[in-house]
Amino acid sequence: MIGLIQRVSRASVSVAGECIGEIDRGLLLLLGIERDDTQASADKLLKKMLAYRVFSDVDGKMNLNVAQVGGGVLAVSQFTLAADTSKGLRPGFSSAATPDKARELYDYFVERLRAAHPKVATGEFAADMQVSLINDGPVTFTLKS
Length: 145
Prior knowledge:
Layout: E1 2-15, E2 18-23, E3 26-32, H1 39-51, E4 55-56, E5 62-64, E6 72-77, H2 99-116, E7 120-122, E8 129-144
Parallel strand pairs: 3-6, 6-7
Antiparallel strand pairs: 1-2, 1-3, 1-8, 4-5
């Protein structure tokens, strides 16, 4: 499982011109699910993402996690994160989970995220989404389980 997290001042996701999820300060999580991923992979990534220290403390050092700053999490499924880009000029998706498995694990991840964190918004699985954000920093990290 691959999570691309971005520290944001604000982020939103829209489908067909309608905003379906938005947060103020927090993390935008783009979530890529690979064929070998399991619920254990989801749990590991979730725990790491929520604990990851990307927000500044009073000394300006990245020592605080999203919960410590009262931030939100906007979780968006991102199929293309599972792409193999090591060869040629076109991505391959053989390492990506099947749509059914990916949906199951995405739903599981979101359910666990909502149980663990008070401010959660999401995109719509497999939809054509438009994501808007103000990346604070910019600060972006790739997390893998």
